[in-house]
Amino acid sequence: MTSFASAQPVPEEPPQPPPPPPEVEEEEQPTTGTIEGTVESPDLEAPLAGATVTIVGTKTTATTDDAGSYKFEGLTPGEIKLRIELAGFEPVERTIKLTAGATVTMQVPLTTMEAPLLDETIVVIGSRTPRTNLDSPVPVDVVTSEEIGRSGRTETGRILHTLAPSFISTPQTVADGSDHIDPASLRGLGPDQVLILVNGKRRHRTALMHVNGTFGRGTVGADLNAIATGSIKRIEILRDGAASQYGSDAIAGVINIVTKDVTDLLDVSSQTGITASRDGAQLKTSANYGFKIGEKGFINVTGEFLQREATNRSGAYTGTVYSEDRVMDDQMLAAAGLSREDFAMRIGESRAIAGLGAYNLEVPFSKAATFYSFGDVSHRRGTAAGFYRFPKQTSQNVPEFYPNGFLPEIQPIIEDHAVTV
């Protein structure tokens, strides 16, 4: 007999819940932006390397590479102004609205400067052949008419003293004629060792020899202040000895003054000023205009007026006047109703009033022949003082004529004319 065991039902397992979805990390939103681009030539055909790109208002700058490319990363979103500069081109500014996470690409063409650069000015001194200042093998400084106008000085010698390295031209005092014609020096050498040219031609020297204990004693130099500043286009300064090319009067260097040749442009200027001590007031007025002659000829003329008042830095006089005996001297001063302040010297810049004129003429006859002429005229009156002649100095004063002594004045009339053809 066969027996069968009965099958017991197996309990079903409860269904498992589905696994949770994988966690997805949230991406961080960018908080900065990028600006990149290129700087190119005006025709957009060539990249410009070496251009400086600056974020205005910050110290952040970049320089373009050989491909003309630049790039700023990590910039805060907002309005950003870029300034692009490169020598020989006009500076450019661009404003960009930068948003977070954005990359802005900007292509910037630069425009060539209309005016020639200082380093590209053609100079002749030092080589006798036209070269740019960058190619010149000797140190040549060029002072432009714009720099002359900004210098604040009213006379050519004082302008060069302010702007040109190694050049010195200062006013003298109690020095006879040297009070009115400043001795000029380049590299510390004498006034007769610097050669002055006007349009490449030698400038004449003055009739004054500096002899009264001033700088350059025993020498004769050119009077730069006789040249109207309004007639000057530029000044070229060779700060190196050039005696082998120009002669022994160029041991210190050469200064070449180039006069204006523009036409159909009226240039009128006036400037005035006074010292902090409320003396030495100056007034200069200048006018320049050029006329065309034919197709390529011109004549440029300049007129200038200058008035300069004297300065005085002498201080109070404390010595005796009438007698070496101090007590007697005080009694005589009281009897005359005077004080020692009435006998002070004048130590300072001389007074001057001047009228100046200049012209520059050029008329080409053919490709091989050109007529040229230039010249200038200066008429100047000055006033300067010497040492006071006291009543006690009987060998230097005539008491019958000057019982209280006198302060001698030097009042020269200085004429300076030059014409070159």
Task: Give the number of DSSP strands.
Answer: 23
Helix content: under 10%
Under the CATH scheme, the architecture of the largest domain is Beta Complex
Radius of gyration: 39 Å
Instruction: Give the helix tally.
Output: 4
CATH topology of the largest domain: Ferric Hydroxamate Uptake Protein, Chain A, domain 1
CATH superfamily of the largest domain: TonB-dependent receptor, plug domain
Task: Note the gap between the termini.
Answer: 157 Å
How much β-strand is present in the residues? Answer: 35-45%
- Number of separate domains: 2
Topology as a string of helices (H) and strands (E): EEEEEEEEEEHHEEEEEHEEEEHEEEE
The coarse overall form would be: elongated
Structural class: mainly beta
Low-confidence stretches: 115-119, 131-136
Q: What does the largest sheet look like?
A: 7 strands, antiparallel
CATH class of the largest domain: Mainly Beta
Overall pLDDT level: 87
Task: Describe the model.
- The chain is mainly β and 421 residues long.
- The protein has 2 domains: 33-109, Immunoglobulin-like (Sandwich); 118-315 and 341-420, TonB-dependent receptor, plug domain (Ferric Hydroxamate Uptake Protein, Chain A, domain 1).
- The chain has 4 helices and 23 strands.
- The chain has helices at 145-150, 156-163, 243-246, 326-336; strands spanning 33-40, 52-55, 61-63, 69-75, 78-85, 92-98, 103-109, 122-123, 131-132, 140-144, 167-169, 184-186, 194-198, 201-202, 232-238, 253-259, 267-273, 282-293, 297-308, 351-364, 370-385, 409-410, 413-420.
- Strands 17, 18, 19, 20, 21, 22 and 23 form a 7-stranded antiparallel sheet that branches. Strands 10-15-16-13-14 form a 5-stranded mixed sheet.
- It is elongated, with a radius of gyration of 39 Å.
- The model is unreliable at 115-119 and 131-136 (pLDDT under 50).
